[in-house]
Design a protein that fits this description.
By secondary structure, the protein is mostly helical. It has a single domain, classed as Cytochrome Bc1 Complex, Chain D, domain 2 (Orthogonal Bundle). It is built from six helices and no strands. Helix 1 crosses helix 6 (about 90-105) and helix 5 crosses helix 6. The longest helix is centred in the first third of the chain and has 33 residues, at about 1-35. The radius of gyration is 17 Å and the shape is elongated. The relative contact order is 0.16.
Amino acid sequence: MKHNSQIAILSLLSAFLAIPAMAQQTGEATYKAKCAMCHGADGTGNTPIGKSMKLRSLKSPEDVKATDAELFKQTKDGVGKMQGYAGKLTDAQIQDVVTYIRTLQK
């Protein structure tokens, strides 16, 4: 019986560790569909729209220092000329995008 409980614990641990990877994949897909046209595939804003809107890079010190909650709020409510995604993306999708943005900042 001890062996079965160890397997169950390892299975739960594996599933728990897979959640960030799934969030990153989902966030990447959403980012590419909704954000990359302005922010660029790499998050630098080096796109025609990004340049015309004078977007700062998501790799800027301000965005790197921002908390996940701040990035979430900016994405949901909008900031500057950027439209908010409330009602267009779920909170889970927005959180996944924030998770993905963090990978761009590394």
